[in-house]
């Protein structure tokens, strides 16, 4: 999942029919309480090929399922939710549907029906169902701009890690122009993007595929979907896996403090990466010769005042450097390449005098630094290639409705100075993630949201998974998630990565037994990933 776009890291359907729909019914009660299931139309599946560039495997179906735009007016305007199903490979042993969400917010889950991370037994006994939540990619994407040119005119004025007063002012001005565009162009959907609506959509889809209870796996932001579902519909939980967890209570009550702690999670992951790099040493870790922490800090501090120009003319800036390091921390597979990029950039910074003194084992080609010249977008913006505006704005649409923020955007500039003292690499970066929420046309303070309680006793145990050094959702968030939920068990993995399913054979065995048999893992387990970060050369 990219950042997301690190955690995944994926069109348009506005349905105006009058499908029989349940009203916005009261939240489900505790297990055992009588709760009549309102009837909904079944999903109208059609065979499809998710990758037309390849032969059709004949195992997929797709659909656009209509849900109410506004659950207070269930018979009114509809939004189409794009769904993709991989049919269970052994229909005679089919248990039900496994719904998947990769996070974001704004991550496209549609193609996640094609994932193999859950293994053959799960694929045999479950239909894998991926979907794009409302406002995302193929599901009525929330759009703040009419054309890509209009979007670029605003977004290109934003600096990812603004340092100078001019950079800060220009970024905040661009954020204001961004929210003005959202107010003008996004339409009524912008009022109905909070997670409570995504969860209501998910429950309708659960009924529409004929499942009496929900089986779900959510990653990153998808853990908020899963935990919200568990508390809105506790009696409808069959099996919920949440991996790479948010702290739902903090996220829904204090956006700024949540983001401050999120910056701390990136710092913890970075520090562990640098420690493990130094322990491995060069050449196993290309950046491992000398004091890795001191070298990294020297690079970062240099970039605060001066970009580093590579031999091909491209430049590593503080913003590109920070965003690429953050992105790499999402995936263990990216850490060894990150080490090469850091070493190459460090060599360029040290030239000409100091470079000659570097030990040969620490030298890597200059072109390895090119990756650090790329600014990674914070939001997943995916849309058909022929769209006039090739993206969507669901990332802010969800975050600004879920997370309460101050209405004065200068607060973000003020906290940036404080946060970077405790989180020197990512504090300022994280502080400028959400200034648009200060002037968002449908902010959290005015939105219908689910903000707790989070302790409902679910009919079955929720499986919580946390990496010890998860950058985007630090480990203590997973610990809090398990503590806040009314019936949950935590499994931990000693890994620097965002999310863990598919990275550990031992974990996947637990996941399979939980999904298939309903056997919850024993608490207190600490697992190892299958792969090493810096394998022997």
Could you explain the architecture of this structure?
The protein has helices spanning 120-125, 148-155, 165-185, 195-208, 222-232, 248-253, 255-280, 292-303, 318-329, 335-350, 394-402, 410-422, 427-431, 475-484, 505-517; strands at 2-3, 5-6, 46-47, 60-68, 78-86, 96-101, 126-131, 214-219, 237-243, 308-309, 315-316, 462-467, 488-493, 525-527. Among the domains are: 46-139 and 191-254 and 448-527, Rossmann fold; 257-358, no CATH class. A hairpin with a 1-residue loop joins β1 (2-3) and β2. It is built from 15 helices and 14 strands. The protein has a ten-stranded mixed beta sheet with strand order 3-4-5-7-6-8-9-12-13-14, with helices on both faces. It has a two-stranded antiparallel sheet with strand order 1-2. With 537 residues, the protein is of the alpha/beta class. α4 packs across α5. Mean pLDDT is 90; it is low at 1-26, 29-34 and 353-361. Belongs to the peptidase S33 family. It comes from Kitasatospora aureofaciens (Streptomyces aureofaciens). One of its GO terms (molecular function) is hydrolase activity.
């Amino acid at each position: 999942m990219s950042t997301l776009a690190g955690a995944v890291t994926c069109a348009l359907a506005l349905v105006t029919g009058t499908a029989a729909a349940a009203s916005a019914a009261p939240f489900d009660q505790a297990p055992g309480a009588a709760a009549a299931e309102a009837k909904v139309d079944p999903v109208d599946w059609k065979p499809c090929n998710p990758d037309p560039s390849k032969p059709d495997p004949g195992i997929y179906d797709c659909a656009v399922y209509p849900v109410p735009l506004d659950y207070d007016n269930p018979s009114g305007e509809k939004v189409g939710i794009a769904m993709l199903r991989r049919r269970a490979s052994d229909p005679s042993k089919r248990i039900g549907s496994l719904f998947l969400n990769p996070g974001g917010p704004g991550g496209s889950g549609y193609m996640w029906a094609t994932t193999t991370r859950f293994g053959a037994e799960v694929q045999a006994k479950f239909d894998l169902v991926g979907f794009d939540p409302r406002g995302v990619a193929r599901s009525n994407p929330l759009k703040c701009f009419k054309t890509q040119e209009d979007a670029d005119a605003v977004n290109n004025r934003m600096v990812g890690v603004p340092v100078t007063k001019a950079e800060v002012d220009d970024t905040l001005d661009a954020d204001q122009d961004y929210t003005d565009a959202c107010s003008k162009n996004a339409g009524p959907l912008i009022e109905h993007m909070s997670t409570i609506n995504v969860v209501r959509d998910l429950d309708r889809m659960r009924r529409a595929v004929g499942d009496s209870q929900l089986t779900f796996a959510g990653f990153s932001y998808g853990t908020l979907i899963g935990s919200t579902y568990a508390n809105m519909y506790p009696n409808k939980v069959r099996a919920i896996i949440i991996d790479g967890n948010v702290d739902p209570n903090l996220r829904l009550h204090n956006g700024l403090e949540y983001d401050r702690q999120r910056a701390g999670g990136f710092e913890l992951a970075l520090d562990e990466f640098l420690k493990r790099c130094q322990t491995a040493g060069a050449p196993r870790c290309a950046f491992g010769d000398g004091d890795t922490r001191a070298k990294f800090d020297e690079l970062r501090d240099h970039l605060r005042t001066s970009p580093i120009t590579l031999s091909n003319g491209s430049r590593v800036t503080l913003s590109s450097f920070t965003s690429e390091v953050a992105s790499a921390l999402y995936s263990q597979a990216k850490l060894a390449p990150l080490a090469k990029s850091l070493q190459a950039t460090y060599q360029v910074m040290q030239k000409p005098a100091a470079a000659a003194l570097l030990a040969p084992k620490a030298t890597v080609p200059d072109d390895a630094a090119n990756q650090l010249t790329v600014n990674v977008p914070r939001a997943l913006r995916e849309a058909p290639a022929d769209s006039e505006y090739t993206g969507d704005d669901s990332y802010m649409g969800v975050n600004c409705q879920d997370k309460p923020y101050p209405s004065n955007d200068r607060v973000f500039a003020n906290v940036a100075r404080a946060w970077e003292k405790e989180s020197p690499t990512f504090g300022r970066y994280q502080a400028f993630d959400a200034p648009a929420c200060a002037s968002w046309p449908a902010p959290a303070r005015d939105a219908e949201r689910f903000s707790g309680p989070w302790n409902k006793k679910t009919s079955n145990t929720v499986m919580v998974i946390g990496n010890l050094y998860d950058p985007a959702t630090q480990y203590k968030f997973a610990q809090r998630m398990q503590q806040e939920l009314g019936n949950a068990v935590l499994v931990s993995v000693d890994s620097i990565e965002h999310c863990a399913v598919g990275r550990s054979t031992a974990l996947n065995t637990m996941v399979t037994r939980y999904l298939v048999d309903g056997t919850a893992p024993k608490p207190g387990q600490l697992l190892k990933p299958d792969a090493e970060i810096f394998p022997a050369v």
